[in-house]
TrEMBL record:
<protein>
    <submittedName>
        <fullName>Adenylate cyclase</fullName>
        <ecNumber>4.6.1.1</ecNumber>
    </submittedName>
</protein>
<dbReference type="InterPro" id="IPR050923">
    <property type="entry name" value="Cell_Proc_Reg/RNA_Proc"/>
</dbReference>
<dbReference type="Pfam" id="PF00498">
    <property type="entry name" value="FHA"/>
</dbReference>
<dbReference type="InterPro" id="IPR008984">
    <property type="entry name" value="SMAD_FHA_dom_sf"/>
</dbReference>
<dbReference type="InterPro" id="IPR000253">
    <property type="entry name" value="FHA_dom"/>
</dbReference>
<feature type="domain" description="FHA">
    <location>
        <begin position="76"/>
        <end position="126"/>
    </location>
</feature>
<keyword id="KW-0456">Lyase</keyword>
<dbReference type="GO" id="GO:0004016">
    <property type="term" value="F:adenylate cyclase activity"/>
</dbReference>
Amino acid sequence: MEIEQRLGLYQVFLKLYEHHRSLLDEILQLEKTNNKTFSSVTTRCVTGVIQGKQVYLVTNLVEGKTQSLYQPQGIWTIGRDRLLAVSIPDRRLSRRHAVIQYIHNQGFYLIDLESTNGSFLNGEAVHGRLRLKDGDRIRLGSLAFSFFLCNDSQILDETPADVLAQLEASTITPRVADVEQLSLPVSSAEAQIATPEQIKPTQQKEETFNFLQEPSPIEKPALESSMSQLSPAQQSDILDRFFSRQSHKVSEHN
């Protein structure tokens, strides 16, 4: 079972090498650095807001900041060009990749501008103009984000008195980062008398991509059969990418 899984993963990487080599480079680079956690990943989104006669987008695609983007003509162009309404420095985006357009009394639409890597709505390629709905998934090249629609608002009832009383009585709990900033530095004398309970061992990062290890003798014939379809230069390149980590580990142990 383990051999089948590793061979399957190998085939995936082989396809990436043949058709999306730059994407494979980024995957390997992410695995190498391994300095980001899931909590640091930002969910990208665009929200189309219709508020009376005013229409605008709220998005965090630009510079990672959530902001409102008002465009008098209701046309928001997305691409690498710095002069665009939604300018994103992504090399898989075309200079002018796609447009989100609002048409009065109809809604928001996604239009592909004959981009190199295409535009996709819920997994389907965009040809012409497609209307956007709340919760749609959009992908422009490799840039993926969700689209939300806000065209309704309501005035809520006043907050109950007991909730207001709880808010007044509650205390604000400071965040860990704020506490660390306010903490005083420990003197050298205090650091020397630290108890064992205060000293925590460094936790090693779990290794990922175990399938990058050198294949076993049982796996090698199947791998060599797949590799024989490539040129010697391509075979060498793939082997260097897949097994360089293993040789690096051996050198570290020595």
